[in-house]
Amino acid sequence: MEPCSPILGGICHLNSSAASRRVHTKERIDMPRIPYKPIDIAQPKDIVDAIRLRRGGNLLNLDRMLLHSPAFAKGWNSLLLEVRTGLTLSPKLREIAMCVVAVLNGADYEFHHHAPELIKAGGTAAQVAALRHPELLNHDTALFDAVERAAIQLTIEMTRNMQVSNATFSAIRTALSNEQLVVELVGVVATYNMVSRFLVALEVEPE
Fold it and tell me: Global pTM?
């Protein structure tokens, strides 16, 4: 079983089945597969400054990995800025979807950063703990309302299968008030599948 993290008072990391997908045949060294760019990197100035502005001044390990490709880092920063700050979608629903993607893809870094954001958006520690097993939540009416359960199921199907069943899509269209919100939720799930796959492939570590 994964060790517990100090985050959120000792809530454990991702479930063991997700974590097991990250185990290699050789002994894993606790380092990224490509070295991070220096923490004090200053060039290209316009790109680094834009990332620091979005992050509140500090570069994360993810940013330092992305900066190996300035063009990629620039596009990533612009997309994630809009996803994090420009959508009409409920921040709580957005963070639930992000956490589910993180668990399903074994992206501990993603969960580490987004579990606290879910709490800030109105989630609870109990919800965060339950999201470590998202496929058990379809009927959990005690912790998640109908909109949240529909969003979780959509996220599971998009992440696991890519294909979304008609029943699941109908449920999320009924749960959300308009088509913009549906498109935004689908976009969030797709975006954070991209993020998690980048993190896991390069073994980017939580700070």
Answer: 0.86
